[in-house]
Design a protein that fits this description.
By secondary structure, the protein is α+β, with helices and mostly antiparallel strands. It has one domain (35-292, 310-326). It contains 6 helices and 13 strands. The chain has helices at 4-72, 82-87, 99-104, 115-118, 125-129, 134-139; strands at residues 112-114, 144-147, 159-162, 167-171, 178-188, 194-200, 202-204, 219-234, 259-260, 265-267, 289-290, 311-312, 314-326. A 5-stranded mixed β-sheet has the order 9-6-5-4-10, with no helix packed on it. It has a 3-stranded antiparallel β-sheet with strand order 1-3-2. A hairpin with a 5-residue loop joins strand 5 (178-188) and strand 6 (194-200). The longest helix has 69 residues, at 4-72. It is globular, with a radius of gyration of 27 Å. It starts with a helix and ends in a 5-residue tail after the last strand.
Length: 331
């Protein structure tokens, strides 16, 4: 016959063993979650990044097709220049003055639209967008909402609907043009410092082809540029072999080391604060992501470089959509 004291002792031993087994399972589950969580995060980030990338590419291609088609059917001067049609404020560039294009086709001012001041009370943003020229309406799905202090020349207290990275630039080829440009990354140094060129949001593929007197006989050949940048994935050096393996740390956000190639386009004074953390922050719109649990600076005056937070560049891809139409109506 088993004594009661022995039964109690064995019961306590069984209880301790059960607790140990449960504690071990909890630790095992934590390790499994840590391993699986990284994979799930990468899959989710890839879905969001490339899903938005493909959506933006489709939006731009549709916008390019509509832009070329509508411009080809608009009665403009036979000697007109396509870049003047899109950006110039000189009435002599059009058959019926700039209002013909600005009202019906494209107005560059809507690439940086002040939501705070531009949306009347009782109306939605979509109500306002429906009154825009057709090309601006087509570009609307590719635009983002940004606080004013992150938009070039914007009111810090307002909110803007912004074509990502678009910067108003002067054009040395024509002082009457204010051309909105985005930064095209042409190369990177081993440490990640970029070499960029400012290119127009909408540009002519073959300069001079729009004129009827050109050898092409009047073509609407345009390209729409869009600097897509991810909000979830960072930029790394390309893999040297397949299957890809990690090839060093992510590229750092080095705005002070960016090299700008010479071109006809120079940004107008007024740039976004360099110390903001967002996909399109910085004077070149190349973005910054907090790294290794870094933090976002909110100082009104930029701190010295020694106090900069750790930051990396977001994944970037320049999307360019183009379309070519023969001009159908001349004057």
């Amino acid at each position: 016959m088993v004594q009661p004291s022995r039964l109690r002792l064995e019961g306590r031993r069984d209880a301790r063993a059960t607790r140990h087994r449960h504690a071990g399972r909890r630790g095992q589950a934590l390790v499994e979650f840590a391993v699986v969580c990284l994979v799930v995060y990468m899959l989710l980030a890839a879905i969001l990044t490339f899903g938005q990338l493909f959506y933006s590419a489709q939006t731009l291609q549709q916008a390019a097709d509509v832009a070329a088609r509508e411009i080809s059917r608009t009665p403009l001067l036979a000697t007109a220049n396509l870049m003047d049609v899109l950006y110039s404020s000189n009435p002599s560039d059009y058959s019926n003055g700039p209002s013909t294009v600005r009202t019906a086709l494209f107005d560059p001012q809507y690439l940086q639209f002040d939501l705070t001041a531009g949306v009347p009370a009782g109306q939605s943003v979509l109500n306002v967008v429906q009154t825009w020229p057709i090309i601006n309406q087509m570009l609307y799905p590719a635009m983002i909402v940004q606080p004013g202090h992150q938009v070039y020349g914007g009111n810090a207290e307002h909110e803007y609907l912004w074509y990502p990275g678009a910067v108003p630039c002067t054009d040395s080829a024509n002082p009457n043009r204010t051309v909105y440009c985005v930064a095209r990354v042409d190369g990177r140094q081993p440490d990640g410092a970029e070499t960029i060129t400012w290119v127009p949001v909408i540009e002519e593929i073959t300069p001079g082809a729009f004129s009827v007197a050109s050898t092409q006989g009047g073509l609407v050949s345009l390209r729409i540029n869009y600097g897509y940048q991810s909000a979830t994935m960072s930029a790394f050096p390309p893999p040297e072999a397949w299957p890809p393996e990690p090839n060093g740390p992510a590229w750092g956000a080095r705005d002070s080391e960016v090299t700008v190639n010479s071109s006809n386009y120079t940004p107008i004074t007024g740039t976004a604060p360099w110390h903001d953390v967002s996909p399109y922050s910085g004077p070149y719109g190349l973005g910054k992501q907090a790294a290794w649990a870094g933090w976002q600076r909110t100082d009104p005056v930029p701190p010295p470089p020694s106090q900069w937070p750790p930051a990396v560049r977001p994944y970037r891809s320049l999307i360019s959509a183009q379309a070519i139409y023969r001009r159908e109506v001349f004057q």
